[in-house]
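Q: Could you fold this chain for me?
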Amino acid sequence: MKHETIAILHPGEMGAAIGAGLIERGHRVVWASAGRSAATRRRARNCGLEDVETLARAAQSAGIVFSVCPPHAAMDLARAVAGCGFGGIYVDANAVSAETTREVGRVVEAAGASYVDAGIIGPPPIPGASVRLYLCGSRAEEIAPLFEGCIMRAIALEGPVGAASALKVCYAAWNKGATALLAGIRALAEQEGVDAALLAEWKISLPDIPKRSEMATVSARKAWRWIAEMEEIAASFEAAGLPAGFHLAAADIYRRLEDFKDAAKPPTLAEVTAALLRGR
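A: Sure. Below is the predicted structure, expressed as structure tokens.
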């Protein structure tokens, strides 16, 4: 595929890593610094992204826009880009429900853009990481070749817009949902004075679970952005006629951990447990 100018909105850890990979493939990658934090500016600069300062300039200069932002911001960002008159390919790679991604698609298409639904599974694409970008929509086959030779593997799915987001929802429903559940279980066991006994039993009957039950210590600094993701998953379950309550509870688990955002180092399990129990 010929080299494109691509806008990354906005370069958090995932977006910056995607941008760096695209630059290595020879693409011009731009971003808009207006209103962004010093940390975001530093990430973009370190990855070699070109700052065009404003969203309007990014939309005007790019043929492809990647939206990589916290789930709660996905719709507002789509409306903002649509308001700039963007007419290229808009790729929403956010952790949202199939219905939310379809609504995002309607917004950008009404303004003249084409829409590709995307779901990222895996950590930011750095050496040694295993990460997939699932794509669907009428122009998904045009986006996948951008990543040939990159650490991130792009996979075009058959099916209507919503399939990529639905796959991401199903994956995260277990992966991040289970982390929240286990964090709650460890807090309950600590409160009832049976944590050591529970760990001993798990080591006998479920030997993989003790280590997995401490994953909240690694995830706590990202908990603030997983609140909306759990709510999007709950909405997906509800839309399918399935109970939504478990992932609404998971959202509450992560809400009790959101104060760990921007912490200098991951909290200990004791600190995570204390934060969960304080939220009673």
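A (continued): The mean pLDDT is 95.
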